[in-house]
Amino acid sequence: MDDPFLKNLSCPISIEKYPNITLAHGGGGRMSDTLIRELFHSAFANEVILKHCDSAVVTLPRKNIAMTTDSYVVSPLFFPGGDIGKIAVHGTINDLAMSGARPLYISAAFILEEGFPIEKLWKIVLSMKQAADESEVQIIAGDTKVVDKGKCDGVFITTTGVGVIEHNLDISPKSIAVGDTILLSGDIGRHGIAIISAREELDMSSTIESDSAPLWAAVCEMLQAGINIHCLRDLTRGGLASALVEIAETSKLHFNVKEREIQVHEKVRGVSEFLGFDPLHIANEGRFIAIVAPKDSNKALEILRAYNAAANTIGHIDKKSPRRVTLETVVGTRRIVDMLSGEQLPRIC
Amino acid sequence: MKFVDEYRDATAARRISELIRAKTTKPWKIMEICGGQTHSIVRFGIGELLPQEITLVHGPGCPVCVTPIEVIDRALAIASLNNVIFCTFADMLRVPGTSGDLFSIKGRGGDIRFMYSPLEALAIAKANPDKEVVFFAVGFETTAPATAMTAFQAKTENLSNFSLLVSHVLVPPAIEAILCPKNSGIQGFLAAGHVCTVMGYAEYEPLAKKYGVPIVVTGFEPIDILSGIYLCVKQLEEGRAEVENQYSRSVKREGAREAQALVNQVFEPTMRKWRGIGGIDRSGLKFRPDYEKLDAEIRFNVSLIEREEDSLCISGSILQGFKKPFECPAFGTSCTPEHPLGATMVSSEGACSAYYKYRRDDRETAFAEA
Amino acid sequence: MCLAVPGELLEITDTNPITRRGKVSFGGIVKEINLAFVPEATVGDYVLVHIGFALSKIDEKEAKSIFSFIEDIGHLEELVEER
User: Of chain B residues 120-149, which have a CB less than 8 A from chain C?
Assistant: First the structure.
């Protein structure tokens, strides 16, 4: 947290008195109220949330809204380049941005484990506040529950986001056509590797920071530049491979991508080789693919590169069938790209 | 990455591909022993760079795939015990035993942990003196030194709550088992570069001579594999049958002496069953009497567990080169990475899983041709 | 079988023959690796690592030889064809 304003904020709940979450914090009585008012409301402070109503009442400037919800569980809660709070806000902003919606409001529900340090919760909440501010989004409603120790892993967060659609495009797999260009907004795999290397059991030093980032600004600029965006998809747990396969299958078209054009940071490659991972399957939290009409691809790439120098054109939709993704490998051959089956686990022997 | 990227160079790959084509005049059947090489071959689409005359057969070199079902059942029996922390490589978690896999025991509350190195299990044993910590050690000669070192340190430190379930196997006896039946038709071998890094390749010399097959010690990157194939085809075309070393940046003829010495101190050769193949004499490692205290089979009295394999899975024929994965009726239908019938579909090095992931096209082509 | 990856030995942290350990970098990610089986490896060498153990020191000269070998046989074959 580099923001001097946030640095100076200290947790308003007296740490001496309640250093850890207790079941009473979720009991709906005085303790709950204190937690909500003093911790959540003081961090998220905005007109709507401070009204302290059962539901947040807002005015939406347009007719078409976008809405999304997502739950966040991550271990460890704090990792290089971010924490669970940051990805909970970015993830929701990004899901809205992928419909080309301007994110406006977020609600957040917290499941807290009994005994969780309030100081850490405060750090998470501040991180959410900072992430929301950066994208001009307000956190306007929320909920808190406390579960017995051992029933959850510190904190689980569910966020719901509402955004408005300010364009007339149909940004979805069904708008994709043969000839379209596939752009990738940056290098891949940083988030997954940051999480893996932060886990004690792998004991790695000199790690890499998560790529967690809000994507709305880049999307907004593409829309304002009049780019004919056909489809957007952010890369999450299943990595680039899953995102590509998902939209290829939905759009019922054949995607051709070039391994050589997909940027992977040297450290991400190092860990991937070492654990037998395929970078195409590693998680991301701040990267997306944009499928655009061929005539707009140069302009779109220029915009994406301004946000991340590693953005690149990685392929195109070359024919109708078969409905799948083919990769041109670095040695100049071709193979199928598939979704990961289950979780990517280290391969050692 | 140094020593990785240069061996994935497209121009060099193309160049060797042309050399192989120029050299090949007859059909040849070459087996790559190692699952790691199978993985590279499918991931980098090496098949496209070979002339039609050359058939690559995927060998039994995946330790996960050849671990017999009864050993998996023994692992499951130990892992289900209350006081046990059961440690192994992530690759082993989803290998099906008779009923379920280690993941399902984890789901029922078993303390199953996967790790990168067996030494981590030692640390867990020290941190949990009131628990029995077991490491399930699978692997070939490459992995055995790490297991031996773990056992050696456990013995030196007199760790009483630590034991190992050992299912180590050795490559040369398996090659011989494949060569014995006349109908296997394998004409040349790419030997596994990492096994040879530890063991050297002197042991292969009598095999090459006795059976008249070229054996080329080969690395794992595309350029390595292509060069290994080139050297093998060259021998075949010239009527030679020698051991050659393509992977000389890592492999010496005598191997890694320190590692061999420790393995010999801790283990001795024994008969082992290979999943899908059966028992092969002196093809595995067991603890020497000095180390028997560390043997989890004895400690938990599970050596009596014996099982027959599921007949639906044809992984044995695949591992011996009789069949390709897409020739199995269950491939991609009742057997998928999500619901594997056999280990070759579980391990990412397994021939079936590798085919499923990267080469379903081949199956479709094969069907279209048929 | 046996995934093993080359990494650069940056520092030796334990010199006891059995527990000999050092820091090895894989594309910039650094991990502590057991070096008991590669007594000949020194800082700056590349070692081949499998499940936390270095199994061999990579021979730089041999590593290059493969490419000169490709060139050489390439030239040879061309010469043969020209004849």
Answer: 120, 139-140, 142-143, 145-146, 149
Q: How confident is the model at residue A108 (pLDDT cuts 50, 70, 90)?
A: very high
A-B contacts at Cβ under 8 angstroms: 85
What Rg do the C-alpha atoms of chain C give, in angstroms?
Answer: 18
Q: Is the pLDDT of residue B294 over 90?
A: yes
Inter-chain contacts counted by CB atoms under 8 A, chains B and C = 128
Interatomic CA distance for residues B53 and B55, integer angstroms: 7
| Mean pLDDT calculated for residue range A18-31 | 83
Distance from CA of C6 to the nearest CA of A (A): 9
Query: C55 near B256, Cβ under 8 Å?
Result: yes
Facing residue for C37 by CB, picked from B192, B258, B349: B258
User: Are B174 and B287 contacting, i.e. CB atoms less than 8 angstroms apart?
Assistant: no
Choose the weakest-confidence range: A24-38, A296-310, A312-326, B247-261.
A24-38
Cα–Cα separations (whole angstroms), residue A31 to A13, A25, A26, C55, C79: 11, 5, 8, 58, 88
For residue A146, give both structure tokens.
């406390």
The pLDDT of residue A235: 95
Over 80: is that where the pLDDT of B231 sits? yes
Tell me the C-alpha distance between B133 and B57, whole Å. Answer: 39
Per-residue pLDDT, averaged over B38-56, amounts to 92
Q: What is the mean pLDDT of residues B282-292?
A: 96
Alpha-carbon span A16 to A283, nearest angstrom:
39
User: CB–CB of B15 and C63 under 8 A?
Assistant: no
Most confidently predicted of A49-53, B112-116, B350-354: B112-116
Q: Assess contact for B118 and B137: CB atoms under 8 A.
A: yes
Over the stretch A279-319, which tens digit does the pLDDT of each residue have?
999 999 999 999 999 999 999 999 999 999 999 999 999 99
Mean of the per-residue pLDDT values of chain B: 89
Q: In A, which residues are within 8 Å of C51 by CB distance? A: 348-349
- Specify the pLDDT at position B366: 45
- The subunits that touch chain C, with at least 3 C-beta pairs less than 8 Å apart, are A, B
Choice among A188-202, B128-142, B155-169 with the minimum mean pLDDT: A188-202
B10/A276 touch (CB, cutoff 8 Å), yes or no = no
Of B155, B161, B255, the closest CA to residue B203 belongs to B255
Write out the two tokens for B259.
Answer: 């590692």
Contacts of B229 in chain A (CB under 8 A): none
Residue predicted with more confidence, B134 or B304: B134
The kind and range of the H/E element at B182 are: none
Measure the N-to-C terminal CA separation of chain B; round to a whole number of Å: 43
Dist. CA A92–CA A107, nearest whole Å: 10
- Which residue of chain A comes nearest to B358, CA vs CA? A336
Mean pLDDT of all residues in B140-161: 96
Strands (E), B12-83: 28-34, 54-61
Q: Which residues contact C18 (CB under 8 A, 6 or more apart)?
A: B149, B152, B153, B156, C36
User: How are beta strands A155-165 and A101-113 bridged, if at all?
Assistant: antiparallel
Of B187, B293, B227, B291, the closest CA to residue B40 belongs to B227
Q: Report pLDDT for B367.
A: 43
The whole-angstrom separation of Cα B335 and Cα C61 is 46
Sheet-wide strand order for A101-113: A65-72, A155-165, A101-113, A138-147
Of the partner residues B8, B43, B356, the one whose CB lies closest to the CB of residue A335: B43
C41 near C26, Cβ under 8 Å?
no
Closest CA to B173 of B100, B270, B293: B270
For chain A, give the mean pLDDT: 90
Which C residues in the span 3-62 are in contact with A, Cβ-Cβ below 8 Å?
Answer: 3, 5, 7, 23, 25-32, 49-51
